[in-house]
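[09:14] KT: can someone run the structure on this one? pasting the chain below
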Amino acid sequence: MKISKILIVVIMLVIVTYFFASRTKSGSGPNQAKASWFSKLDANGDGTLSPEELKAIDANGDGKISAAEAKAYGIPDAEFIKWDKNGDGYISQEEMKTYGG
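[09:31] RB: done, structure tokens below
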């Protein structure tokens, strides 16, 4: 009787471990969503957005990124709001520095 209980516990631990390991490898959840749009912008793959990479988003060249420009590059609205620290509807050069620009 004791061996069967131990065997059940071991099997459950294996299943739980497998579940967490496969979930981590697949990159599911919000981090995967961020990775897909962020990796498009991060052309050199260094994990930050360089000034050149940020300038590519600034389609009209006015030195700031509008919500429409951000949306065109797939930046989620919630992320744009987070980057737009002063809430003026644009990501300025100063605000870009937070992300590597």
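[09:33] KT: thanks! The two ends are 64 Å apart (CA to CA).
[09:34] RB: yep, looked fine to me
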